[in-house]
Amino acid sequence: GDYNTVSINQTGNSNTTVNYTDLTITGGNNTVSITQQSTGGSKGSFVGVNDNHNSLILQQKDNGNHYAEISLSGGYKNVDVTQQGSASHMAKVSLSGQPVDLSLSQSGSTQQFYSINFNCATSGGCAKITVTQGQ
């Protein structure tokens, strides 16, 4: 598709640095920004952004092992995921159908897990989903 913008910044230090991204984009006018920073923890993400006008911001940082698997199908989805802290945080997000926004924050020293498979069937879109896990 046209007008896709992708910005990936993977950094790390210490003896243990693993950053991994598998990215697929279909359709036009999509924006993806992934930042994976490591101070000893491994990071990983699989991202699928399909159809028009989907936006994703994914940040995985600090020394925890963080994993995110995100799939957006249908247009006009805005997803913002932040995973940070010393614990292992995992997220599996699948959004489809009408427009919907998701904001997910996982942080701290206690492991967090979040999974959503959501199909918005409301004409004009669904209300924003906001989830905060950890400190």
Verbal overview:
This protein is mainly β and 135 residues long. The protein is 0% helix and 59% strand. The protein has strands spanning 5-12, 21-26, 31-38, 43-50, 55-60, 66-72, 77-83, 89-97, 100-106, 112-120, 129-133. A 6-stranded parallel beta sheet has the order 1-3-5-7-9-11, with no helix packed on it. Strands 2-4-6-8-10 form a 5-stranded parallel beta sheet, with no helix packed on it. It is globular and about 45 Å long.
Topology:
Elements: E1 5-12, E2 21-26, E3 31-38, E4 43-50, E5 55-60, E6 66-72, E7 77-83, E8 89-97, E9 100-106, E10 112-120, E11 129-133
Parallel strand pairs: 1-3, 2-4, 3-5, 4-6, 5-7, 6-8, 7-9, 8-10, 9-11
Mean pLDDT: 86
State the distance separating the first and last CA atoms: 39 Å
| Number of contiguous helices | 0
Poorly predicted runs are none
Task: Give the ordered list of helices and strands.
Answer: EEEEEEEEEEE
Write down the overall geometry.
globular
What's the β-strand tally?
A: 11
Q: State the helicity in percent bands.
A: under 10%
Main structural class: mainly beta
Beta content comes to over 45%
